[in-house]
Amino acid sequence: MKKKIVSVLLASAMALSLAACGANDAADTAAEETAAVEEAATEAAEDVQETTEEVAENVEEATEEVAADSEGVMSYADYAAADLDTEVTVVTYVQAHQSWWDGKVTVYTQDADGAYFLYELPCSEEDAAKLTEGTKIKVTGFKSEWSGEVEITDSSFEFVEDGDSFVAEAVDLTDKLASEELVNYQNQKVAFKGLTVVARESGNAVDYSYDNSGSHDGNSDLYFDVQDADGNVYTFTVESYLCDNTTDVYAAVEALKVGDVIDCEGFLYWYEGAANPHITSVTVE
Question: What is the pTM of this model?
Fold first, then answer.
């Protein structure tokens, strides 16, 4: 009997010991799992902190770059109000350019508010080929004037590669040809409609040459006179550096006859007033 009681007691003690060991193992496992979770959470928090700091740093750098890029950039209103012979910086969009020559190119540019004529902009031939319609550039130079034409000279430029582009629509200025308001559109892409071709002093509809003397070398500038509904006469030009003798407009102007009624598009170049706008398109009605 005593042996049986002792055996039972021993068995009970062993069971209790095994239970205690199991409980300890479970507690250890739980503790390890908890520690692992806490470690993972800590690492995740550190990763988030690092990412947040990196994003904030990138935003700060981008903000500084934007500020640097825009430093000194003028609106068109600021440019128009600037004194002649002062340094100007503008961001603008290429609309067309004359032929590259001797490290320079003359460029017609515009934004939503106004236009800029970049005279003999220093440029490599490779970069000149990249100055396509709509291309965004930043230009620094000096606001100058020659015979009434306001332009930017002695300048430099850089491409602004932010995916932004702008192509201007030609604004119809037929009713402003004789108006003092016309100067407000200087160098912009413009249209004139319903004008009548009239004879020049030579008696011809079209004269040729860079000096407007009437000589022709096969690829000279073309000058032609047009009359509006009020009888005012204007001289328009096909600038051969812009539209040479291989272009449609060159052929169209050479074929003009006195009495033709035409619609034109071009750039409102200024010379001693609203003379010689550079015409890029002519349609006979």
Answer: 0.74
Q: Which of 220, 231, 174 is nearest to 198 (CA)?
A: 231
CA 110, distance to chain mean position in Å, is: 9
The domain of 67 spans 1-71
Residues 273 and 192 placed together within one structural domain of the fold: yes
Q: What's the sign of the alpha-carbon dihedral 75, 78, 84, 88?
A: negative
Half-sphere exposure of residue 130: CA atoms within 13 angstroms, side-chain side: 12
Q: Would you say the C-alpha torsion 97, 184, 167, 63 has a positive or negative sign? A: positive
Which of 197, 180, 192 lies closest to 266, judged by CA?
A: 192
Contact 260, 196 (CB under 8 A): yes
**Tens digit of each residue's pLDDT (9 = 90 or more) over 40-96:** 767 766 775 776 667 556 645 544 444 445 679 999 999 999 999 999 999 999 999
CATH code of 206's domain:
2.40.50.140
